[in-house]
Each structure stands twice: as structure tokens, then as C-alpha cells.
């Protein structure tokens, strides 16, 4: 959606929660943005998946979203359009 509102920016779109490009690692989503998902992925890359899973268990990190509309792939078209309109209106301010 932001690509349509800000078309002059360069965008690299990925639907992955954690993306590694050389030495750069980025994360998306609220839990990834806070760093939990990215930290678990970094632990898996550095110390192995079993270690990362153990850390997840120690943290008791078990995300369970109340809704399944957290991506453009899953959200219904009317909701996407509504959000697009709100973002466009906000970009004018």
C-alpha cells in the first residue's frame, strides 16, 4: 500500500518476516519489529535451529494473533481498500 502512496521511493518488497541481504538483516511485523522474531532467526543462523527453538521455549514466546489479517495476502479486499484510503488521507497531512 505504501508503494502506491509514496511512488517516488525505492521499495524492496518481501513477504518474509526476517530478510537477510548480506550483512543487513531487517524484520517486519510488530513482533519482528520489537525484535523477537529477528532475534530467534539470528540465533538459528548462528547457533542452529534447535538452540533457537530452546530460546523460544525459555521465553514462552507463542504468538497467537486474534485476527488473520496481518498481510495483504490474507486481508479481505474491502479492508485493504479502507486502509489504503486512510493512509492516503494521512499522507496529505
Amino acid at each position: 500500500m505504501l508503494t502506491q502512496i509514496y511512488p517516488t521511493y525505492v521499495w524492496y518488497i518481501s513477504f518474509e518476516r526476517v530478510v537477510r541481504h548480506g550483512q543487513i538483516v531487517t524484520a517486519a511485523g510488530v513482533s519482528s519489529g520489537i525484535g523477537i522474531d529477528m532475534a530467534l532467526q539470528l540465533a538459528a543462523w548462528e547457533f542452529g535451529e534447535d538452540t533457537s527453538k530452546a530460546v523460544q521455549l525459555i521465553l514462552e514466546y507463542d504468538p497467537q494473533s486474534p485476527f488473520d489479517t496481518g498481510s495483504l495476502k490474507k486481508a479481505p479486499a474491502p479492508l485493504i481498500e479502507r486502509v489504503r484510503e486512510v493512509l492516503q488521507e494521512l499522507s496529505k497531512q
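The two ends are 17 Å apart (CA to CA). The first helix runs from residue 2 to 5.
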